Every structure is written in structure tokens, then in C-alpha cells.
Amino acid sequence: MIQTRTPAYRILVVDDYEPFRRVVRLVLEIRNDLQIVGEASDGLEAVQKANLLQPDLILLDIDLPTLNGIQVARRLRDLVPRAKVLFLSVESSSDVVREALKMGSGYVYKLHVGSELLPAIETVLGGKQFFGSMLEGNKLTDAQEAKAPRRHEVLFYPEDGVFLDGCTRFVAAALGAGDVAAVVATESHRDSLFHRLKAEGLDVDAEIKHGRYISLDVAKTLSTFMVNDMPDWERFFEVVGGLVSGGAKAGKGERPRVAIWGECGPFLWAEGKVDAAIQLEQFLNRLATIYEFDLLCAYALSSFHGGKDDNVFQSICAEHSVI
């Protein structure tokens, strides 16, 4: 019996920042039915390549040279009428985002590409419009325009390979968007992530030199704000708050922010300090009402054994915005 191969969706990636295009390629590699057929770095080139390649989907930045993304999408309506347009941008102005959604089928904030790009593509290719997490309730409010979105995500992983895949995408997306990535983890995990990022073609040494990639030891970091085996708010605010407020200054773009991959909570949990782990997650949520940042925590599933651990598992989930 001859097996027929499922045809892949043909995708054109348009962004003037090559490291971010590299991040998109990394995310799309997960799916065999998504094929990048071309890339463009400015608006005019995007129009030309879209007309030539006739892709099924165009991943389109807004802030582009020669023609901006909205102008590109307007031209493509006649040139490539069947193609879906999904905007990937750091733009948070309500007027710009509304106009983008008139021209395209969806919008994803660049820092959330690691977690939202694949669901967005599936939604858009399915004929529906995708609203990223920054468009809560499918509406742009004044508060959302004043502040970019923040997320406190948790990843429960079965083995280190899954763990490193998720963290690589998270950190690479932040660096690709011109933001600052801070890693607070064990030495072995920091080393593995460093090599993963370099293997993906990211110039990690340059990011470190410019202060956009910060790598900290989890045990040493915890020791700076723990008192009697519990996190102390004033010390935590000084250390972690200082990391967020100071780190963002090294970012690129108009509104740079910090994305943190942290193992502090999981480290405390592994030591049996359950209450301390939960309180730390609560402190992070409290800090997020003061500063804008994004956070990914990673817990090993093997550390939860059922029974009373189920209640702890639910408590940890409750402190996160995305699981």
C-alpha cells in the first residue's frame, strides 16, 4: 500500500532582525506540516517574495524598512488573496494593533512566540482569527496599551530533553525580540542551555557582553533573600526587583523588558521546602504588579508522587498564568 504524505503549509517569514527569524525557524521545526519557503527582511522584498512564492501563510513583522507590515498586508490582499497573514510584533499601541487585525488573521506578541506561535498558526490556518494573550477578552483596554503583557508560566517536564527544548524557545524568543533574558538555574542546566542557544546560531557571548543574557546560580541567588528557610520580601524585592528594573536597561527597542527562566521554586521544592516554594511564587506575582517582566518556572514531574502532592501541585498551578 502506498502511503501519501500530508502536504505541508508553505510559510513566508518576514522580519528585519535575523536572530528573530532564526527563533521562528526553531519553533516551526517541531511541526512536519509547516514548511518555510522563503524569508524577507524588508517590506518591499516581502511583497515581491509573496507574489513569487504564493505562500499559504505569511508571518509578518509590523516595524519593517521600506514598507511597514500593515502596508505590506494591504498590498498582499490583491497579490496573494488566499494567503493568511499572522502579525508577530513588539508593537503594543492599540491603534496599530487594531489596524493590524483589520489587515491580518491574527497577532502574536514577539516575546510569546515560543508558547503562542504554533497555536496561532493552527487557529489562523483553520480559518479563525487569533488574539494573543495581550488582547485579553479580544479587546484592547487603556491599561493594556499603557503596559505590555506579563506572564508567569510554569512548565512541568517529564525529562530534561523536554525541559531544555521549552527553555531554549523561551530564552531565544526573548533575545530575538531584543529583550533581556535572565537565567537562574543549576550549573548543569545553565551550561546545557548555553550550548543549545549557540547551536541554534545565537551569539550568546555577545548577548552576555551587552548585558542582555544574564546567567545566575540558583543556590547562590536564593541565599541572598532567604531568611530561616523562607523568602524574605524586602530582600527578595531588592534582589529580584533590582534584576528586573536594572536588566531591562540593556534591552533593545523602545520598551525593553526582562524574561526570566527560573528554578528557584523548583529548587526549594526539591529540598522539601514546599511552603517556601509556594511563597516564592506568590512573591513573584506580587513583584509583577510593580515591574513588567515575563517568567518561566520549570518543575520536574518526577518530583510529584501523588497523594498529598496533588494539593501542592494544584497550589503551584494556581500561582501561574499559563501551564
Task: Please characterize this protein's 3D structure.
The strands form three sheets. Strands 2-1-3-4-5-6 form a six-stranded parallel sheet, with helices on both faces. Residues 137-149 have low confidence and may be disordered. The protein has 14 helices and 13 strands. The chain has 323 residues and is of the alpha/beta class.
Question: Which short descriptors sum up this protein?
Answer:
single chain; 323 residues; alpha/beta; Rossmann fold; 2 domains; 6-stranded parallel β-sheet; 5-stranded parallel β-sheet; 14 helices; 13 strands; 46% helix; 20% strand
**Overall number of domains:** 2
The CATH architecture name of the largest domain reads 3-Layer(aba) Sandwich
CATH topology of the largest domain: Rossmann fold
Q: Secondary-structure element order, as H and E? A: EHEHEHEHEHEHEHEHHEHEEHEHHEH
Secondary-structure topology with pairs:
Layout: E1 9-14, H1 18-28, E2 34-40, H2 43-53, E3 57-60, H3 69-79, E4 84-89, H4 94-103, E5 106-109, H5 113-125, E6 130-131, H6 142-146, E7 152-157, H7 160-176, E8 180-185, H8 187-199, H9 204-209, E9 213-217, H10 218-223, E10 226-227, E11 230-231, H11 233-247, E12 258-262, H12 264-270, H13 274-287, E13 293-300, H14 309-318
Parallel strand pairs: 1-2, 1-3, 3-4, 4-5, 5-6, 7-13, 8-9, 8-12, 12-13
Antiparallel strand pairs: 10-11
